[in-house]
Amino acid sequence: MKPPVFSNHGCRLNAYEVEAMKDLAGQAGLENAIVVNTCAVTAEAVRKGRQDIRKLRKAHPEARLIVTGCAAQTEPDTFAKMDEVDAVIGNTEKMRPETWLGLAADFIGETETVQVDDIMSVTETAGHLIDGFGTRSRAYVQVQNGCDHRCTFCIIPYGRGNSRSVPAGVVVDQIKRLVGKGFNEVVLTGVDLTSWGADLPATPKLGDLVMRILRLVPDLPRLRISSIDSIEVDENLMQAIATEPRLMPHLHLSLQHGDDMILKRMKRRHLRDDAIRFTEEAKRLRSDMTFGADIIAGFPTETDIHFENSLKLVKDCNLTWLHVFPYSKRDGTPAAKIPNQVNGTVIKTRAAQLRAAGDAQVQRHLQAQIGKTHRILMENPTMGRTEQFTEVTFTKPQTEGQIVTTVILGQSGNQLIA
């Protein structure tokens, strides 16, 4: 028996869903198959998915090759036309047990080559929960999927559908199970986390969920939230930042740009001053708060002055961990039709400048930690992360999964040393 091989592209949510698919495929008895979970965030991501498919087909000529994920959802025909591909399944279908039962059948004549329904008609999150994806110390819990917003550069709503929330009671029960299994940190994940609750009765907010988790799961040492839209942060989430030490002081912000005109052309819901105001307030409430951010370089019509405002935002918002995306023209998005697309060489240069600014901020953050005492969650015997998600290397082995309190002795590269 040859268990299926999974190849994942893209975000943390995709990685979470691969773990769910492994369970579903195993329960269905799927054998001798390759499953590629694609990403659609940029044209380059789709290209890498196709490249991976060709590479995996050469390495596993006898296996059935199944393609799923966001790129499969948004452009199924692209993958169905590839000679290497046997089946294409959508983002909804990949989380259904019956899909995998069909794929595990004789296959010839048993299953349609393309199983991709209208993602916009989906009204519920998938019910398949993973008890313990991540390291043995940290688990990820999907609480939301999809997005109701239509940023002009983004194809993701067409791959993920509209926003759907997992009810708070379901989330709390899962986190209780994870804590019972020994996990010391839980990370809440989703496509647009701050929209959690908008489709639930009484329309609760993300802050309500965070406070409820911390209240009802008192044995959970650390709760972390992944990428958020700062303009949608509610009062209870700010209250949690101010009063709940078990909520980790690290927020990754979906900022995308630092110039108001470009933000408007991106159809974002915040302006530059909104981002600065949020980071200043969060830092005031929690002095050890650190920020990461997504920033796009070279969006259509971006001038040198527009770009300078993005570059300045790195310091103005005290950003530490940057995810820099060189703008990639994505067919099917409004931004692809905007005149005055920026030259590719200019985009690369600007992206490099942003990364350099981010690297300087990281070094500044690391230097400031030397001599301080940190509580570090061990991911393996020699590496753990601080509450701000900074990597720490230990000279002496520690117990994996435990939270270790220690003084930072120095730094090496982008890591601290303890």
3D structure, described in words:
- With 418 residues, the protein is α/β, with parallel strands linked by helices.
- 36% of the residues lie in helices and 21% in strands.
- It has 13 helices and 19 strands.
- A 6-stranded mixed sheet has the order 17-14-15-16-19-18, with helices on one face. Strands 1-2-3-4-5 form a 5-stranded parallel sheet, sandwiched between helices. It has a 3-stranded parallel sheet with strand order 6-9-10.
- Strand 12, helix 12 and strand 13 form a beta-alpha-beta unit.
- Helix 1 (12-28) crosses helix 5 (97-103), helix 7 (168-180) packs parallel to helix 8 and helix 12 (304-316) runs parallel beside helix 13 (344-369).
- The longest helix is centred in the last third of the chain and has 26 residues, at 344-369.
- Mean pLDDT is 89; it is low at 107-111.
